[in-house]
Amino acid sequence: MLEQALLADDHSSLARQLGELALTYSSGDISRAAIFALAAEEWKQAGQPDRALECFQRAVEDGGESMIDPRAGIADTLFELDRPGEAREVIEALRAEGTTTPATAHNIAETLVAYGDLQGGLEWATQAVLVCAEDDPEHVALLRTRYRIRLDLGLPEDELDSLVS
């Protein structure tokens, strides 16, 4: 299913199929929330952010495990829908909880940068680098993102930047 839709570049069809799968899914190697999040990403690729937002919200409501907190996807989609105030509220709620995974923090950092908040992106990337275990595959990606943001801000190299390989 996934391969065929990707080869055909048919994100709408794949999103629809993933959404239907999530509705009937009971258990397996991946959570229902993760399937809803995948469907949301496909709706975004298909240029349908309203439908993506619905799927991200269903992922949150489901409460199952997901590699990236679906609320990060909600924030990104709200920015895309030109609702930055709501997006920032979601991001601040995640910050207030203080339990964001490095992968989620990385996603938020990239979202903030994409919508022009380099300083906010740097803060999220830096915090994530500081709590991310060095053997976590996300660590190197976070270091690179942080370094890129610092370059865009015109900041001099610091101790963490020297770790980028």
TrEMBL record:
InterPro entries according to UniProt: TPR-like_helical_dom_sf
Superkingdom: Bacteria
Protein name per UniProt: Tetratricopeptide repeat protein
Organism (species): Nonomuraea mangrovi
Lineage per the UniProt record: Bacteria, Bacillati, Actinomycetota, Actinomycetes, Streptosporangiales
